[in-house]
Every structure is written in structure tokens, then in C-alpha cells.
Amino acid sequence: MAAMWVYVRKLYGYAGFRLPLHLIGMIAVSMLEGLNLFILVPLLSLIGLFDSAGNGLPFVNLLSDALQGLPATGKLAVILGLFVVIITLQAVLQRAQSDWGERIEQGYIRHLRTDIYTGLLQARWTFFLSKKRSDYLHILTAELPRVSFGIYQVLNLATVLLFTAVQVALAVYLSWPLTLCILACGLMLALLTRTYARQARVLGDEATALSETYYGGITEHLSGLKEIKSNRLERHHLQWFRALTSKMEKNVIGFNRVQSMSQFYYRLASGLLLALFLFLAVAVFRVPGERLVMIVIIFSRLWPKFASLQSGGEQLAQTLPAFASLERLERDLAAVREAGNDATTDSEHPLVVTGHIECRNVCYRYDTEAAGYTLDHIQLQIPAHSMTAIVGRSGAGKSTLIDLLIGLIEPEQGTVLVDGIPLDAKRALALRDRVGYVPQEPFLFHATLRENLRLAAPEATEDRMWEALRLSASEPFVRQLPQGLDTLLGDRGIRLSGGERQRIVLARALLRKPAILILDEATSALDSESEVFIQEALTRLQGSMTIIVIAHRLSTIRGADQVLVMDNGAIIQQGAYHQVKSDTDGMFSRLLQLQA
Ligand SMILES: Nc1ncnc2c1ncn2[C@@H]1O[C@H](COP(=O)(O)OP(=O)(O)OP(=O)(O)O)[C@@H](O)[C@H]1O
């Protein structure tokens, strides 16, 4: 519940004066509804059902006095005219108010969505190392609509409450003992059906957990679909899917049962109450006919509102866990925000390395409780405009070292320095502004090749794109694509081979005109011919930018100015290519022999 209030307060913070205006609109609509009721009495007296005096009712007496001189038809025309005017006014106001409410609600949800997405973009990389991707994906896609629905329920409940308050006030004015009796019954029923709101909350918790598992599961399964199909694992996944969706189905049916049960009791009670009400009105309180008619009309409108308050309350209770999840994520994101990253602008002064990037006695581990370090007392220097190759067995710590060099993660001990100055969060952002990075698993969007390239440099001309494609050895196969640069690459670039994907991502990185080019195993998926092209490209680029390559294909790094050989988180060999190669007992020679 506390989380929900946080978002209601935020709603006020977002909507400002529009929210009270919205509430005033609601009150006006309810008032007009009440006013309409008072017109019924003179109308009914005109028809001959009541004595015309209006029996001391407010507005009615005023109206009766004003119409005294008119003939019966004139009176009828005026009263019906008033009736139509009030209904029209009410309809116009209600329409405007509903429009207004929707704008506030949708605007607010967009605002929350943008906040979360911005928070994710601004979060430190360590956040993504410790969280399951599907969890925040789930909040962005499934929980936010629930929060939106919850906010709608809050606004709706406020409307119903206001409406109820105005009508109850009218009813009290007309006959307070009768109204109090009815309200007491309503309160008793609300207390008796409280258990349904609790059940709704429990089902809401379960719905959140189930939907989290569902999102997590299908995200993982769909990413590993090729493995599932190749290994004939369809049956296991289908079993999992069926069991989970069956639980989800039961959860929704359960919630519906809770709602229908409470509504059932409200309906039952309404029959009993009406009988009791009429008995009390006629036999005990002896309420005059005009008032009785009006109270009956008021309560016949009010009772469904009681029921909708109950049902709205249950629906709100069901969405409460979504508010809690959203609040938790927002809190987590606020705690891991990268200093100086506003996610909307590039750094004012991108950091260009003129001297060297250096690691002084750097230690790092993913789990601070773990016994050993992932990177263990690293000492290195990467001179600007040089080409450095990092090699080593799988799991040696090569990718972790790169993350550290560009400030995605921070050392536990020691310092990373750029041109002799420690790399703090702000400088790391400025450094990454000039980095071109080709990750281990290159990512392409389901868009055309041109759009994929423009992602890195929106203003890039066609000539620059071809130049980057030439440099990355992509030109020959791109020329053969059916629509050239306008060819659709398919989901995650599925229409290209692994090697082709990597070369396109390399072209994209080059389009940024980076000061530092980083290739993480960029050559692992290349065929021998492309490998030669890449090697030539690297040779061409050498000297114009700082290049750091993590290479498994050792032939691509023959021209490297420096080779760092890693094992078990430590640098065990370091030096120029031929120097490291000449150590015949060293790991590098062994790796070369293995590849030969
Ligand atoms: N997010 C993570 N959380 C915990 N441990 C991790 C994480 N990423 C990597 N590691 C561990 O850190 C060690 C170094 O991993 P890293 O990816 O840096 O190695 P690598 O040399 O790049 O390997 P490869 O050549 O296979 O990519 C490995 O033991 C790995 O299991």
C-alpha cells in the first residue's frame, strides 16, 4: 500500500494543478447529477403524483415559486428544458473530464516508463551483471500496464467516492435516519467482504511471481531456440510452458471468482436492503412520498457505486504488487546511477588518449566474497595510437580487463589511469564517447543495413558507409546483397553469417571515427579469407587510433605493437609480437603451436 501512495504522490508531482482540477470536474458532475434529481419532484407533481408545493425541498420550492404564474404546459416545457440543459451540461463535463483524466493517466505512465528506461541507460554496468535481464524487462512491459491500471483505479475510486459523498449528503438532507440505516448496512457488508480484498492481494502477488517467471522463461527460451531445436528439447520446454500457463490461467480465474463472489453478496444484499429500506421508510420513519421517491432514486444509483467501490478496491489490491516491484526497481536504479550520465547528451569534452592507458596494480572480482580475483594485480600500459592484442585461454579475464579499461567496471584495488590521471566515472563516460566497440556477440537490429550502420553515426553519408564497409572487409558481400544497403537484416541479423555480422558491427564501430577501437574476439567467427581482410584493415588503421584486440585467431595480431598474454586473471607475458613469440616455453608459443 505504501508503494501505491508513493506513486499517487508522484502523480500529483507530475500532474500538478491538473489533478485538483480533475477532481473539481468530478465534483461538478456529481452535483449536476444531484440537481437533476430535484427537478423530478416538480415534474412528478405536474403529472399529478404529488402535491405541487415541493414539500420544503431545496431548489424545488424556488422552482415552484418561479413557475407559479405559468400554465401547466408552460411549466412542463420549462422543467423538461431545464432537465435537458442539466443532462447536456453533465454529458459535456463528463466527456471533458474523462478526456482530461485519460491524458493525465497516459502522460503519467509515459513519464514513469521514460524514467525507468532512462534509469536503465544511466545505470552502472555492474547493475546488469547482478540482475536478470528479464526482471526489468518484465517490469517495463508487464508491470507498468498493471500500475497504469492501478492508477486508473485510484482516479476512478476517487470519482466514485466523490459521487457517493455528494449523493449521501443529499440523502442525509432528505432523511438522515433512513440514510444512516442504509450506510450502516453498506459498512457491514464492506467489512464482511474485506476478506475478498485480501484474497485479491494474495492473487496479485502470485500473478506478479508467475508473470516474472513467464517473462524470464520465454526470454531465455527464445534466445536459445536454435539449441532447443537442434537438441530436440521442444518437449521439455513445452511441458514447462504448459504447466506455467495453466497456473496463470488458474490465477486469473481465481481472481475473477473473488470478484464475482463479492459482487454476488452485494447483489443479494441489495434485494434485502431494498425491502428493509421500504419497510423502515413507510412503517417506521413515515417519510413523505416526494422524499421517499428521491431517496429511492438516490440509493438505486448509490448501491451499484458501493459495489463498484468494492470491486475497484479488489482490483487495486491485485495491482499493489506491481507498484511494489516498480518502486523497488526505481530505488535500485537510483542507487546505481552512473555519475554525470544524463543519457541525453554526449560528454562536453570527449577524452582523447594522447599518452597512454595504464593499469596500476589493478585487482577485480565479480563476487567480493570469492576467494580469488578475476583480475589479479594487473600492471600494463597501452600507448596511444598503438595496437595491443590480448590473448589467453577462455576465462582468463580478457573481456573483464576491457570492461575495466573503458570504465564499465571499477577496480577493487589499484587504479586505471588515462594520461596519468585516474579514470573516475565522469572521465570514463568521456572516454567511451570516443570508443568504437565490437562485442563478442555482435548485435544487429531487425532493420536495414543502412539503419543498422546509422545507429552509430546518424549523419553518416553513403560514401562514409561504404568506406567503413571496405575497411571492415564487408564490401564484397554487401555488394551482393539483393538490396545493398537497404537489405533487411532480419531478427538480430539472422540473415547474415556469424562472420558477416561481426564485420558489419566492425564497420559500425569505425563509422563513429573512434579514438579507441576495441575488438572483443572479433575474428573468432571469421573465415580465413575475411581474416586476412581484417588483418589488412587493422594494419591500415594502425597508427590512426588506439586499437585493442582480443584475439583467438593469432594470425590477425601479427602486426600488434604489444601482446598481453593472460592466464587466470594475471598477465603472464607482455611485449612485442616477435618478442613474446620468441619465448618458446611461454604460453603464447604454446597457443601458436596449438593453432598451427
Ligand atoms: N558477469 C559475471 N559474473 C561472474 N563471473 C563472471 C562474469 N563474467 C565473467 N565472469 C568470470 O570471470 C572470469 C573471466 O571471464 P572473462 O569473460 O573476462 O574471460 P575471457 O578471457 O574473456 O573468456 P573468453 O575468451 O571465453 O571470452 C571467468 O571465470 C568468468 O566465469
Automatic annotation (TrEMBL):
Listed PROSITE patterns: ABC_TM1F (PS50929), ABC_TRANSPORTER_1 (PS00211), ABC_TRANSPORTER_2 (PS50893)
Main localization of the protein described in the UniProt heading: membrane
Gene Ontology, cellular component aspect: plasma membrane
Cell compartment(s), UniProt: Cell membrane
Domain of life: Bacteria
GO molecular function terms listed in the Swiss-Prot or TrEMBL record: ABC-type oligopeptide transporter activity; ATP binding; ATP hydrolysis activity; cysteine-type peptidase activity
InterPro entries: AAA+_ATPase (IPR003593), ABC1_TM_dom (IPR011527), ABC1_TM_sf (IPR036640), ABC_transporter-like_ATP-bd (IPR003439), ABC_transporter-like_CS (IPR017871), P-loop_NTPase (IPR027417), Type_1_exporter (IPR039421)
Its membrane topology: Multi-pass membrane protein
Transmembrane stretches, start-end: 21-50, 70-93, 149-170, 176-193, 264-285
Domain ABC transmembrane type-1 residue range list: 23-318
Keywords: ATP-binding, Cell membrane, Hydrolase, Membrane, Nucleotide-binding, Protease, Thiol protease, Transmembrane, Transmembrane helix, Transport
Annotated ABC transporter domain residues: 357-593
PANTHER family: ATP-BINDING CASSETTE SUB-FAMILY B MEMBER 10, MITOCHONDRIAL (PTHR43394:SF1), ATP-DEPENDENT PERMEASE MDL1, MITOCHONDRIAL (PTHR43394)
Protein name (database record): ATP-binding cassette subfamily C protein
Species per Swiss-Prot/TrEMBL record: Paenibacillus phyllosphaerae
